[in-house]
Every structure is written in structure tokens, then in C-alpha cells.
């Protein structure tokens, strides 16, 4: 039975770096955000979202993510509603993907909100990637061209590192790439020994 290894970490912690290291080792990686974005483009998803959030979040038959974000980011209840539409679709897609990759001893599910969404309960083991708040802010400001305050607001919307660590099996600190790779290889060795 293929084991599901959750890979998470706060915004800017460097989950993608770790996901790429797994991929380089030939291990299948499911990037939940990327798949969710694809699912958001499906006609049935667009239909549901426009029914709930109104026509003003639809532009040229696509979801206007800026308009939708501005509604849900400051309203936890509306964010819950959005997640209740998208998460079941992503979950089904993920389950189908696991079946397609069942010849592997384990697969990686990378998700920014693994804990917040509750989907961590379906993982056999969990890896949390951490980095200092300053490093994370700097990375996201550069990557997303965001302001410092915008990044801090997004950090506040996620579980803290200490909350994530308390529910994780492995922690990889991602400040310095060489040290990160060493920790990654140690974690990989442990995962290969899971039975």
C-alpha cells in the first residue's frame, strides 16, 4: 500500500525546493496548489463559485482570482465556503493520482494548508519545512512582488511553525541549501525504511 507523505510549511518556507528534491529522486510529488488552480478552471467549478460569490468574481468565463481573493482573504467564513467547494474536488483528484502511482512505496503531497484544511489526517507521515520569519518575508516579497505587510498578513492566516511541528514526524529547516539537502537526505532515508 502506497504511503502518503504530507509536505507542508508556511508561506516562503521553501516547500517547493524540498518537493523538487523529492522529484529529482524519482518520487512522485502532488502539488496541491497547482492542481487546485487547474480545478478552478473547470466549467463546473466556475459555475459553483459564481453561484456562491456572484458574477463579479468571473471575468471572460474564468475566475478573477484577485476579486475572489479580496473577498475571502479578510473573511474566514467566506474562505471556509470557498474551501468547501474546492477541497472535495482536489481530494478526489488526489485520490485518483495516488491510484495511478500505487507502484511507489510512498508519494509526496505538497500542500501549503495541509493542517488548516484538515487533509493532514489522510497522511501517513508529515514533513514540515521551516525557515525564519525574516527569510520567509524576504523570499515572498521577491517572489510575488508583495509588500512586507501583505506577506505578514498571509503568515497570520496560516498555522504557526510550532503548531505544525507539534503534529509533524519530520522537520526540515530551509535556510541554507547545503544544510537543507543534508536534512532532506536524512529524512528520505527514514522514509525509505518505513514499512
Written account of the structure:
- With 195 residues, this protein is α/β, with parallel strands linked by helices.
- The chain has two domains: 1-28 and 106-186, Rossmann fold (3-Layer(aba) Sandwich); 39-100, no CATH class.
- 54% of the residues lie in helices and 15% in strands.
- It contains nine helices and seven strands.
- Strands 2-5-1-6-7 form a five-stranded parallel sheet, sandwiched between helices. A two-stranded antiparallel ribbon has the order 3-4.
- The longest helix has 25 residues, at 76-100.
- It is globular.
- The mean pLDDT is 94.
Short description:
It contains 9 helices and 7 strands. The protein is of the alpha/beta class and 195 residues long.
Topology of this structure?
Elements: E1 3-9, H1 15-24, E2 29-31, H2 32-40, H3 43-53, E3 58-59, E4 62-63, H4 65-72, H5 76-100, E5 106-110, E6 125-130, H6 133-144, H7 148-156, H8 161-166, E7 170-173, H9 177-192
Parallel strand pairs: 1-5, 1-6, 2-5, 6-7
Antiparallel strand pairs: 3-4
Helix pairs in contact: 2-5, 3-5
| Biggest β-sheet strands, sense, barrel | 5 strands, parallel
| Class from helix and strand fractions | alpha/beta
User: Roughly how many Å is the radius of gyration?
Assistant: 17 Å
Q: Cα distance, first to last residue?
A: 10 Å
Count of individual beta strands: 7
Q: What strand line-up does the widest sheet have?
A: 2-5-1-6-7
From the 3D structure, determine the CATH topology of the largest domain. Rossmann fold
Oligomer: single chain
- Give the CA-based shape: globular
- Total helical segments: 9
CATH superfamily (homologous) name of the largest domain: P-loop containing nucleotide triphosphate hydrolases
Count of structural domains: 2
Binned strand content: 5-15%
Low-confidence stretches: none
Tell me which CATH architecture of the largest domain applies here.
3-Layer(aba) Sandwich
Helix content: 40-55%
| CATH C-level of the largest domain | Alpha Beta
Amino acid at each position: 500500500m502506497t504511503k502518503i507523505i504530507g509536505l507542508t510549511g508556511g508561506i516562503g518556507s521553501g516547500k517547493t525546493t524540498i518537493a523538487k528534491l523529492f522529484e529529482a529522486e524519482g518520487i512522485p510529488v502532488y502539488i496541491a496548489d497547482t492542481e487546485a488552480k487547474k480545478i478552478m478552471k473547470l466549467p463546473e467549478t466556475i459555475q459553483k463559485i459564481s453561484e456562491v460569490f456572484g458574477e463579479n468574481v468571473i471575468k471572460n468565463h474564468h475566475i478573477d482570482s484577485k476579486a475572489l481573493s479580496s473577498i475571502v482573504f479578510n473573511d474566514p467564513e467566506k474562505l471556509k465556503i470557498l474551501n468547501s467547494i474546492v477541497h472535495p474536488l482536489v481530494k478526489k483528484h488526489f485520490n485518483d493520482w495516488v491510484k495511478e502511482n500505487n507502484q511507489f512505496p510512498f508519494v509526496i503531497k505538497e500542500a501549503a494548508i495541509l493542517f488548516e484544511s484538515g487533509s493532514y489526517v489522510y497522511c501517513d507521515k508529515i514533513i514540515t519545512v521551516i525557515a525564519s520569519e525574516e527569510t520567509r518575508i524576504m523570499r515572498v516579497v521577491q517572489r510575488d512582488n508583495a509588500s512586507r505587510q501583505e506577506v505578514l498578513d498571509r503568515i497570520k492566516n496560516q498555522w504557526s511553525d510550532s503548531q505544525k511541528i507539534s503534529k509533524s514526524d519530520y522537520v526540515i529547516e530551509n535556510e541554507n541549501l547545503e544544510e537543507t539537502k543534508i536534512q532532506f537526505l536524512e529524512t528520505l532515508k527514514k522514509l525509505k525504511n518505513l514499512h
